[in-house]
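Bump. Still looking for Response regulator transcription factor structure tokens.
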Amino acid sequence: MTGTDRPIRVAVVDDQPLIRAGFSMVLAGQDDIEVVGEAENGQQALDLLDEVDADVVIMDVRMPVMDGIRATERLMRRDSPPGVLVLTTFDDDEDAFAALRAGAGGFLLKNAPADQVVHAIRVLAAGESVVAPRITRLLLDRVSDRLSPANGQSERLGLLTGRERDVLGLVARGLSNAEIAAELYVAEATVKTHLGNLMAKLHLRDRAQAVVFAYESGLVRPSP
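Sorry for the wait, here they are.
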């Protein structure tokens, strides 16, 4: 259940009817999840979410009319956007990176076990990232030859204090709050405060987004 003790509202977006039906059937068996609608492409998803509220959107990547990456980018511009769980048939690093860059809270292969998908939905509904920072860093290292700093990202680093930049760099290395506290010889509560401040200043939603920003701003360089 969500914080309001109501079911997690989920929209399923995929251009294949059998895939949509399969996800909807699996989710219908969960007491804490309610499927509020289906769409067969990104534009239909945007139209659907004009009419109904969703906490989480299961979004295919490769669809006609509008793909899942573009639809995710547009959703993220809305006030209080839903969490987006991107699904792909292919173990494609570029798709996964594009999804995170667009604002998705996680990505899974379409053949992921049903319990893994259900768990990911619950994590996203709680406002957390499905992808651990360490996994995000490994992903970015693999696509580093195609990764160039985004315009204006390095300038945004100027919004941060020196200690906030230190914390961001350690988050990008995949360290937990406790590990960062040990590294900087400060209390874990202090790390949480710095992390909350820097994410607010940079308008980041979760730690995975923080790792992407750290790479795009040039604060962190890909591993050799």
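Residues 3 and 126 are 8 Å apart (CA to CA).

Edit: fixed formatting.
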